[in-house]
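[recover] target loaded
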């Protein structure tokens, strides 16, 4: 797997940790995310900054690196079929994740998440193109 969709949980994890491994991953893989991730990250920006292990300048440089290496896709690029399938998959798990699942369906690439209920719920419904980010990291 060289391409994957990442959700806001993965992005926030990257930003909080500031680990060099993420620079390597972001350079070696092509990650996509929904523009909805910006809303989630904005909502939790104070927590992200508080939990980060980086000094302010380093945090800003690392954040810039992350955001220039992830391809953010606006919702209007997702066709109705992908949105409808995503809704059917996530409506009873967490509706906020519809944009990530729809993007993964649209691009026909895996979704990487740190959200265990989302992962379990999608797998239970037969959606196999989803992987826990920690498992992905171990195998990358």
């Amino acid at each position: 797997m060289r391409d994957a969709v990442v959700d806001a949980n993965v992005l926030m994890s990257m930003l909080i940790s500031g680990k060099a491994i993420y620079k390597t991953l972001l350079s070696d893989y092509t990650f996509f995310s929904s523009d909805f991730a910006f809303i989630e990250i904005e909502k939790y920006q104070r927590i992200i900054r508080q939990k980060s292990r980086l000094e302010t300048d380093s945090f800003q440089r690392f954040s810039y690196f992350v955001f220039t290496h992830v391809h953010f896709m606006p919702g209007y690029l997702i066709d109705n079929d992908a949105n409808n399938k995503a809704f059917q998959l996530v409506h009873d798990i967490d509706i906020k994740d519809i944009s990530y699942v729809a993007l993964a369906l649209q691009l026909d690439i895996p979704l990487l998440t740190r959200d265990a209920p989302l992962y379990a719920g999608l797998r239970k419904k037969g959606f196999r193109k989803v992987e826990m980010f920690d498992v992905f990291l171990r195998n990358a």
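[recover] notes: Residues 3-139 form a domain with the Rossmann fold fold (CATH 3.40.50.1010).
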